[in-house]
Amino acid sequence: MSVAYIDIRFFAHATEDPDKVVEAARNILPDAYVDDIAFELGNLRGHYGNLIVLYKTRIKKKEIISAVTNNLFSRLGESSKKSLHKEIKLHVKKGSFYLRLDKQAALLGELKLCTADPICLRLRFKNVKSRHIVETYEELGIIA
Predict the structure, then answer these.
(1) Over the chain, what HEC string results?
(2) CB neighbours (10 Å) of residue 104?
(3) Between β-strands 96-101 and 40-45, what pairing exists: parallel, antiparallel or unpaired?
(4) Total-model pTM
(5) Domains and CATH numbers, the chain
(6) 13-44 pLDDT tens trace
(7) Four-residue CA torsion sign, 68, 69, 70, 73
């Protein structure tokens, strides 16, 4: 299976230090490619008019995609892998695999799943059905 691209998106809310939020996102990336991945910024407004900064990037270079994917799944904790297995239908849809990682844990250098205010990743596959993604990840031990 071949990943066509990886999208990474996250928000920095008005109550958060944007530098720490970006640092958390950079902590999920492989060290060798951190400087090769730049985030675009967009300003949004929250419900009460508070500033929210959207950071996003799309990774298309094959060698960086491979390094990011290997890094993610080698560092993802066993409890997160078990959660992925139990809730796989929430993570795979129309040829894409979705992960939501905890920003606070990422700031500390740990990778674990969460649902509230995450760093969102989308791994988009080339011409692959969702069931093949699940089968392959199970065979590789990515989903425990």
Answers:
(1) CCEEEEEEEEEEECCCCHHHHHHHHHHCCCHHHHHHCCCEEEEEECCCCCEEEEEEEEECCHHHHHHHHHHHHHHECHHHHHHHHHCHHHCEECCEEEEEECHHHHHCCCECECCCCCEEEEEEECCCCHHHHHHHHHHHCCCC
(2) 12
(3) unpaired
(4) 0.91
(5) 3-140 (3.30.1440.10)
(6) 999 999 999 999 999 999 999 999 999 999 99
(7) positive
